[in-house]
Amino acid sequence: MKILVLNAGSSSLKFDVWETSLEAIATQLDRKLMQGEVERVASMSDAFKSVFAQLGDTKIEAVGHRVVHGGDLFHASVIVNDEVEKQIDSLSVLAPLHNPHNLEGIRAARAALPDIPHVAVFDTAFHYTLPAYAYAYALPYDYLKVKKIRRYGFHGISHRYVSWKFAQLHGKTTAHYKLITCHLGNGCSVCAVEHGRSVDTSMGFTPLEGLMMGTRSGDVDAGAILHLIMHEKMEPAAVLQTLNKDSGLKGLSGVSNDMRDVLKRASEGDERSELAVETFCYRVRKYIGSYLAAMNGADAVIFTGGIGENSAGIRMRICEGLSNLGVAIDGAANMAASHDPRQIGSGPIQVWVVPTQEELLIARDTLRCIAASQ
Question: I want to staple 359 with a disulfide (CB 3.0 to 4.6 A). Which of 16, 101, 195, 367 is the partner?
Answer without folding.
Answer: 16
